[in-house]
Every structure is written in structure tokens, then in C-alpha cells.
Amino acid sequence: MIRSNGVAPASRDTLLGGLSIDGARLWDALAALGEIGAFDDERSGLRGVNRLALTDADAAGRRHVVAAMRALDLELTVDRIGNVYGRRRGTDDALAPVMMGSHIDSVPTAGRFDGCLGVLGGLEVLRTLADHGVVTRRPLVVAFFTDEEGARFGTDMLGSAVAAGRLPLEAAYALADRAGLTVHGELERIGFLGTAPERLSPPHAYVECHIEQGPTLRQAGVDLGAVTGVQAISWHEVTIVGKSAHAGTTPMELRHDAGVACAKINLGLRTLIASGRFGPGFRATMGAIVPHPGLVNIVPGRLVCTVDLRNPDDALMRAAEQAVLALYEDVSRDEGVSVTWRQTARTNHVPFAEAIQARVTSAAAARGLSVRSLVSGAGHDAQELAHLCPAGMVFVPGEFDGISHNPREFSTPEQCTNGVNVLLDVVLDLAAEA
Ligand code: GLV
Ligand code: MN
Ligand code: MN
Predict the structure, then answer these.
(1) Measured in angstroms, how far is the CA atom of residue 115 from the centroid of ligand 3?
(2) What is the CATH number of the domain that holds 63?
(3) For residue 211, which phi and psi values (nearest 5 degrees)?
(4) Does 105 sit in the ligand 1 pocket, CB within 6 Å?
(5) Is the pTM of this model over 0.90?
(6) CA 200 to CA 146: how far, in whole Å?
(7) At 355, is the secondary structure helix, strand, or coil?
(8) Span 359-403, pLDDT tens digits
């Protein structure tokens, strides 16, 4: 690293000890992006965020972040899946960059931190370097990836999975939302169908700062998390077809009720968890249930629901998936309905590079922050980047038991500042490497 004003390069230790981000500026940036797609949540009285991927609100958020990248003089690239990269030159500019990033799309009921902290934190790191006239040896890139949430088109980590080569571009383009609108069409409509090749050439390393989205760190009173990896994820879309009938006239013994079958599957998932056969970390959720026609006096003849399975252990996840398929068969037979399913997302447990975990831990310790290692319960873009380069994450605790995907999602300015300061330290270290 050198100082761009031609002054002799300061030693790395001096700079690591001396550079800190501007926490108030980071907070303001989170607030400003959080106003894009914001809504007043009547129940909580709080302001939530709805920037579902590739909607007009997502487009507005994208333009806002692109403007911030331009203000930092970053070289911009938009690839064919709509991932956006802002690159800052290094003194050894031909070297592979150190990348930071995350996502700015949200679930429809979000807060303002999920994903945004990693993207705006990355930009705050670059602002801090610019303030101090520091140019790193390796170039630095801040990325935001398309549709990390998967809440609209059904597949999570979409843009980063394409960039890492796990998901073919054409398969991603063809995904459609419930209204039949496709990823390709929506990328084109919002003006983010880029021309750069979607396959990312491997960065030197990738580091993402993100809220934990769970209670562990806050309950332990720990300042930060060094993430060991991301657990396995398996998503199913399940379609149950029975027989629609009049609620008042149809004798119970003649019914083939898709709603009852769905309820049995949901409770069956609980029974599988309670059996303990699939480990203490196994989780199962039926998050969406859409009955047809969905009316008070009609036995639902058709129902589409989702099943989300998580497990930190790959072998136990495979066993759990087999048990869930057997559950579908049992319910189908017992209720006289058809149960079909399709896999909408599937990732194995992804371990993060130990070298990056160690850097997060030592950077936190050097700042006098307590740190704990933990596996991520949520999916993240970093797990896709981990297929290309050493990758890792810094977790920031969340208040209110780390509630997330909810307007109550909240981390304090201090918690966010701590996380991004450690991001800065780790990135400076990595960017100095030959
Ligand atoms: C991403 O938010 C996930 O579902 O884990
Ligand atoms: Mn996220
Ligand atoms: Mn999320």
C-alpha cells in the first residue's frame, strides 16, 4: 500500500492501527438506501423495506448505489445477469482484486441492513481509503449481486451463483415469478441487462460483512462473528392436487382436501425435527402456502407451498431430504391427493477459508473487540464466491434476537461500524499481498 501523494509508504501496521471508517457516514448511507422501497409497517409502526429483485424499487436502489460508485470514480461493470462491480485501481493493477460486496435486493418485508451493510460497508471502506489518500497494491472491487434473496424468482444467490459458474446463465434467465415475468425480461426492463461476461474471473479473495440475522452473537454479548461457513440449503416448491368441492354439501369421507394434506406435511416436518435423526442443526420451514381457489366455502382442490430445509451437515441433509420425500408420499396416499415437488434451490455446506476466518478474528482482537466463530444459518453471496477464491464473512450482531427479514431488523451504529472496520482491516491486509 502506498499513499498516493507520493509520500513514502507508511508501514502496514501504522495504517492498520490508524485507519478507521466514518461510522456516521456509513449510518447515513444505510438510512438513505433504506428509504428506497420503504414502507410504513402498520403492525410495528416501523419503516420496512421492499426492494424485491428486479422491481422498480430494486432498480432505484441499484441506480442509487451506482451513483455512489461513480462519485468514488470506480470503474463500473454490469454483467449479463445484472451483477454490478465497482473497481478501484491498485498500484499493481494487473493483480487480481480483493472483492467486497453483498446484495441490495430484499424480501418484501425487510429491514435496511440485510445485504446493504456489505455493499455500503464496502463503499465506506473505499471512501475511507480515499479520505486518507491510500492506494492499495491490489485493486479493490465492491460488488452487488442480483437477487440474493430468491424471494421473487424462487432461487436464491442467483447472480453470484451465475458469476461463480454454479448456475447456467440461460437457466437463470428463464426463471419466472408468479406473474410469469422472467429474470431476463425484468433485467432488460429495468435497464440492468449488462454486456460483460457473467463468469467472474477469480478475485484474490472475497470478504462480506453482513448482519448475523439470528440471536447467537447478541445473546452471547459478543461484538462480532467470524463465519466458518454456510450450512446446506434445500428448497422445494410442492404442488398438491386434490378435489375441489362445496364445503357445505360434500361429506367428509368424500374429500381430497389439498389444505389438509399441506397441514399434514407441515406437521410431519416438525415430527422429523423432533425425531433428532437429522442432527440438532436441522431446520424445516413451510414459508408459503397458496390454496386455490382460497375461499371460505370451498374445499381447496389445489395448493402450492414451499419447504425450506437447512442443515450444517451434508450427510444429515441428504438423509433428511429422503425422509421429506417419504413424507410427501405418505400424505399423498393417506389423503388421496397427488403431491409433486420441484427443487428450486440446493446448496451443500460451504466452508469458508480458514485464512480469512483467522484474519477476521485477529483484526477484531486488535481493535479490542470480542469475536466468536459461528456457522451462518442464512445463505449468502459469499458461499458462491467461495467456489472461486478464498472467501469469508464478518457477522454483526442484531438487536431483538437478531430478527431479520422483518422491519424490526436492527443493528446499532456501533455494531455496524465495528463490522466494517474489521472489513477494512482484513481487506487492507489481503490487498497488500503479492
Ligand atoms: C437468505 O436470506 C436465506 O434465505 O438464507
Ligand atoms: Mn442477505
Ligand atoms: Mn435476506
Answers:
(1) 7
(2) 3.40.630.10
(3) -70, 150
(4) no
(5) yes
(6) 14
(7) helix
(8) 999 999 999 999 999 999 999 999 999 999 999 999 999 999 999
Q: Which of 327, 347, 367 is the last residue of a domain?
A: 347
Residue 145 located in a structural domain = yes
409 shares a domain with 263? no
Q: Which residues pair with 373 in a beta bridge?
A: 226
Q: Is residue 51 part of a domain?
A: yes
Q: Which residue has the cell 414451499?
A: 306
* 104 alpha carbon – ligand 3 mean position (Å): 9
How confident is the model over 136-165, as pLDDT tens digits? 999 999 999 999 999 999 999 999 999 999
Q: Are residues 64 and 204 in the same domain?
A: yes
> Cα(315) to centroid of ligand 2, in Å?
25
The secondary element (H helix, E strand) that includes residue 86 is strand 84-88
Do 396 and 299 share a structural domain? no
Q: Let me know whether 420 and 313 are in one domain.
A: no
Specify the ligand 1 atom closest to the Cα of 378: 5
Q: What are the distances in angstroms from CA 259 to CA 134, 147, 163, 305, 395?
A: 61, 30, 39, 10, 39
Asked if residue 412 and residue 388 are part of one domain, the reply reads: yes
CATH code for position 304: 3.30.70.360
Supply the mean pLDDT for the chain.
95
Instruction: Give me the sign of the Cα torsion angle 246, 251, 254, 260.
Output: positive
The predicted-structure confidence for 106-137, as pLDDT tens digits, reads as follows 999 999 999 999 999 999 999 999 999 999 99
d(CA 83, CA 77): 8
Same domain flag for 242 and 199: no
Distant-in-sequence, close-in-space partners of 168: CB < 8 Å, separation ≥ 6: 162
Q: Is the pLDDT of residue 3 over 70?
A: no
Residue-wise pLDDT for 318-335, tens only, equals 999 999 999 999 999 999
Give the domain extent around 177: 12-231+350-431
Together in a domain, 129 and 43: yes
* Matching residue, cell 441428504: 318
Tell me the backbone φ, ψ of residue 291, rounded to 5 degrees: -85, 150
Residue 23 and residue 153 in one domain: yes
- How many structural domains comprise the chain? 2
What is the pLDDT at residue 44? 83
Query: Which ligand 1 atom is nearest residue 213's CA?
Result: 2
Verify whether ligand 1 is closer than 6 Å to residue 378 (CB atom).
Answer: yes
- At residue 427, the 3 state secondary structure works out as helix
CA gap 432, 140 in Å, rounded? 11
Pocket flag, ligand 1, residue 149 (CB < 6 Å): yes
